[in-house]
Design a protein that fits this description.
It is a single chain. Helix content is 9%, strand content 44%. Strands 1, 4, 7, 8, 12, 15 and 16 form a seven-stranded antiparallel β-sheet that branches. Strands 9, 10, 11, 13 and 14 form a five-stranded antiparallel β-sheet that branches. The protein has a four-stranded antiparallel β-sheet with strand order 3-2-5-6. The protein starts with a strand and ends in a 7-residue tail after the last helix. 32% of the residues are buried. The C terminus is likely disordered.
Length: 320
Amino acid sequence: MTLPIVFSVFLSDLRAEDLACLTETGYNNPYLKVYFPGKPPIKTEVQKRTLNPRWRFKSEFYYSEILFPDLLPQKYMAIECWHNRMFNDKFIGRASIDLFTLATGPSHYTLNLKKEDNSDAGRVFFKIQMDEVRNMIIRLESLVLVPNDESSADTLYLEYRYSAKRSIDPTYKSSVMSVEKLTTIEASPMIVNASLKSFQEESIEIKVKKKSVSKLKTTIQNSQCRVQFSTYFSPEENVGMPFKEPLMLSGKIVADLIGVVKYANLPKFAQMKGGTFDENGIQGGLVVVGATPPTPVRQAIIYLRLLDFFKQSKNLPSLK
């Protein structure tokens, strides 16, 4: 069974400039309708007597109407601007953009509104966060705790959790270990529901806890470290990324935690960091590591092959 791609969508900062005027007073009463394929239209409030409206509008929802990634370039989000009247509202203009660009490009957009005859009707501006979310699987393997002080021996375990500290994220516990024997620590996989971009801004918070009922206090009990995802990340699933992080207690390094972190079920789509989109395309911005780039790979390959062909064709003998 094919599961749909799930996107977290947050639409905000909607405004328009230089709207085509439909009244003799020189002003419109504009509002917007936003359409996503398969979803009911989203409607803003009406702004009175203006050609440069700004809407205090926000909409947040999950979008899961797409089954296959290849369909994203073929599906469009449309924005229509209307003039509110007592009877029979009047159409001002329409703009649209494909979902692939929204899911891989920047979050700030400027689109040209077009009338029914395709003439200019103004511009619309908006911010949209549209990121694929998945239940990512994170595995900590080959974990070994190496204390700086030989007297630190005791029976310990690790508590670890996703650093975002959301209510949906549990605290995990590792197997009990003997520091004296430097035994490998067994850790259960973490399940994190997040986007690729937000995930890479977070880390695993790890704390050493004491399991033994002995009254002997160890020098590494309650020490902590972080495994930062942006530092130890591989877009290739189940490829181990070795790490070594110091365990800190009261501002001092008391031990090192060594291991490997692996990832599975990673999202494929994430919006760029920074950048804008206008009639000239994407301006600036950085592609998130592991995310699908904003130019479809298939189109890029075709373009490079054509470019290579035309370069080679210059050296071909004439057919005359």
